Amino acid sequence: MQAANTLSHQLPGEAAFGDRERQQGVNWTWAAENIGETSDQTVNGALGLHQAMMNEHPPNDGHRQNILNTSGNIVGIAILIDQQHGLLWLTEDFAHV
To answer: 38 and 49 in contact (C-beta within 8 Å)?
Structure first.
């Protein structure tokens, strides 16, 4: 996402999310991904993105549902400070293996 400066679950030429998970050795039976970006490059920026996901309401609460889903038994979180574009990129990956 940083290289393309685009928030997207799948960039052109990139494998699908589930395939990327498997390429990293995660042999999942259920998997989900939340992504976000903010110009606040501090801890508060990352926490704000996560809190915004938690504040979602049905029927538009897919991020919240991913976080609260009890099927997952592993979580991966990545935060990248992108000085070039002035952004903080966040990914939260959830899976059941």
So the answer is: yes
